[in-house]
Amino acid sequence: MDVYEAVTSRRAVRGFTDRPVPRQVLERVLSAAAWAPSGSNLQPWRAYVVTGGPLAELKRRAGERVVAADPWDEREYEMYPPALKSPYHERRSAFGHERYSALGIERDDWEARQRAAAANWDCFGAPAALFCYIDRDMGRPQWSDIGMYLQTVMLLLRAEGLHSCPQMAWSVYRQTVAEVLSPPDELVLFCGMSIGFEDVTVGYARTGRAPLAETVTFVEG
Ligand SMILES: Cc1cc2nc3c(=O)[nH]c(=O)nc-3n(C[C@H](O)[C@H](O)[C@H](O)COP(=O)(O)O)c2cc1C
């Protein structure tokens, strides 16, 4: 698979089969992803890969919190600015519309939206998950390094025939994740990532992208 194909075939997959992901494949992907760039080569990512019994336990604990309508954990970072201005607000609305209409959910059916969102904490059925932490001393440039690392992981997963879904949703239950993973206190959970083979029976709408001219400016001589 060439890089263009890896990039364009990667999407946030929200339905996985239970076919296990071999440990050696995950090791191959993560060994290659370690070549992702980072400022001064700090490599600020700390990844935990979870499968089998521990993942089942994590899903069970998170599922209990969903059912109990347990309040979310105190945030360690803000997922979005409090008021999204244009054009971000419109892009978020368009994404919500695309995502939920693909599932046949009406715009104002809040309960159905909540049920769909709850699938996050079952990793959309995936048999493997990665949880990406960063040292809390790190600043914005290092958080950006983490993004490059995670995209590298996701592209390499495509080369292995696997799919993924990055999930900030896990940060709202970060204490439950910590109960299962026992990370050191100095780490902050950025996001989870579901990993597995796509369940092709699950419907989806390909999310669009802004036209190039909205996000790229060529300054030419
Ligand atoms: C850092 C990050 C966190 C995300 N968190 C979630 C999440 O919690 N749940 C989810 O379903 N999708 C999540 N997504 C997926 C985005 O919604 C998705 O990437 C975006 O809508 C573009 O769609 P595409 O990846 O399918 O092209 C996240 C993506 C990123 C990069």
Automatic annotation (TrEMBL):
**Gene Ontology molecular-function annotations:** oxidoreductase activity
Q: Which residue ranges does UniProt annotate as crossing the membrane? A: none
Keywords from the named record: Flavoprotein, FMN, Oxidoreductase
Record-given protein name:
NADH dehydrogenase
> Origin, by domain of life?
Bacteria
Task: Pinpoint the Nitroreductase domain residues.
Answer: 8-196
Query: Which InterPro entries is this protein grouped with?
Result: Nitroreductase, Nitroreductase-like, Nitroreductase/BluB
Question: Which species?
Answer: Streptomyces diastatochromogenes
